[in-house]
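Dear H.,

Thanks for agreeing to be a second pair of eyes. The structure we're designing against is below in token form, covering all 385 positions.
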């Protein structure tokens, strides 16, 4: 068996690896459990880790370790690369492959499966969903998002407490998410009834209008002197042009400019009011201290189910989650054809975004709340007098 990680790491990516390896070690037919070093590049080179010899003590560290212990990548792959990877499977006598990643990785998963079928290689390929951005199609949500959502909600709650204590400026916090606003939206869960939540949210699903933004801030400044805004890194105007020109683009990867700094400067320039930008960046996906318990358990479950499925001969599919109930929270895993998720980006539905386009609805809060894995830290808030 070979396990491959692709795309950006998450706080629970190694939990899926843990689930897959633990399950694979039960199978006596497997002579080796390999991991591609640094993603598809390792597969192309035939450069693998051997995981079957990992001790129980080492394996138990995986769920609490963020990032990817086997390495991941954002390799730009061409048609010939999939043929080469398929031949590596033949040469190394690898019969089972698990691809763990987001949209691009699920595309690679499907293409490798096709290459194996076309070349008569007896290999079975299954996808394990992973993305903090929560933009994989079909599945109710993806492992990695719950922890990113918890990090964002908890961090915004803390920022709001800070601004409440010294209400002298507008703070703009930038959230990850190129085209999907799930992480930005999760900031709304900061307010769990104590009022420590963001004042405004701007999602990439809605065109960003600078004039509307300025008026939103101006209106709030009439009643309060400290304001917290959360904005997606992928904000675009009505023409689809990024609010801040990307610094660098290559393939599907876009390195955006500092949206938070830009919007803070708009406030300073247009309204003459103090403002500052903040950007958690990698901290939002690498925090093991703010892992969601639900996310952790579901990540491990996805790895385990994928391993079971591929060993039974399933191929060209991805593990997905179907929500049975929100309160009480209950999901069930199922397999979906990989063609239905390959590069199909899932954005926030209209019913989750408020009419003004600067916040979320109660429907989103209800959907998202269980994924945080429990209540946020309780804080003291005194009344206004």
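And this is the sequence the design step returned. I haven't edited it by hand at all.
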């Amino acid at each position: 068996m070979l396990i491959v990680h692709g795309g950006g790491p998450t706080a629970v990516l190694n939990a899926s690896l843990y689930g897959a390896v633990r399950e694979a070690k039960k199978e006596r037919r497997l002579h080796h459990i390999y991991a591609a070093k640094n993603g598809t590049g390792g597969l192309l080179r035939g450069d693998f880790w051997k995981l079957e010899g990992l001790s129980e003590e080492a394996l138990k560290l995986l769920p609490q370790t963020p990032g990817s212990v086997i390495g991941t990548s954002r390799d730009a792959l061409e048609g010939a690369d999939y043929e080469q990877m398929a031949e590596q499977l033949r040469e190394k006598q690898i019969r089972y492959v698990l691809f763990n990643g987001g949209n691009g990785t699920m595309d690679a998963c499907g293409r490798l499966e096709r290459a194996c079928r076309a070349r008569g290689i007896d290999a079975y390929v299954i996808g394990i969903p992973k993305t903090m951005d929560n933009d994989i199609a079909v599945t109710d949500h993806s492992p990695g998002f719950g922890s990113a959502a918890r990090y964002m909600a908890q961090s915004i709650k803390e920022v709001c407490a800070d601004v409440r204590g010294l209400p002298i400026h507008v703070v703009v916090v930038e959230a990850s998410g190129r085209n999907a606003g799930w992480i930005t939206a999760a900031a709304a869960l900061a307010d769990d009834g104590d009022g420590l939540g963001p004042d405004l949210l701007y999602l990439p699903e809605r065109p960003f209008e600078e004039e509307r933004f300025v008026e939103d801030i101006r209106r709030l400044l009439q009643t309060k002197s400290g304001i917290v805004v959360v904005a997606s890194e992928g904000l675009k105007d009505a023409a689809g042009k990024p609010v801040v020109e990307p610094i660098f683009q290559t393939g599907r990867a876009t390195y955006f400019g500092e949206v938070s700094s830009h919007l803070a400067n708009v406030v300073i320039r247009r309204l003459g009011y103090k403002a500052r930008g903040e950007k958690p960046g990698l901290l939002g996906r690498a925090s093991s201290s703010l892992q969601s318990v639900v996310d952790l358990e579901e990540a491990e479950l996805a790895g385990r189910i994928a391993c079971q499925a591929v060993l039974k001969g399933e191929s060209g599919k991805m593990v997905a989650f179907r929500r049975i109930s929100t309160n009480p929270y209950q999901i069930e895993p199922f397999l979906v054809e990989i063609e239905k998720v390959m590069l199909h980006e899932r954005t926030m539905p209209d019913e989750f975004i408020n009419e003004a386009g600067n916040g979320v609805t109660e429907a989103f809060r209800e959907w998202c709340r269980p994924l945080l894995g429990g209540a946020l830290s309780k804080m003291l808030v005194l009344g206004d007098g």
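Two observations from my side: The first helix runs from residue 13 to 24. The chain has two domains: 2-143+290-340, 145-284+349-372.

Warmly,
E.
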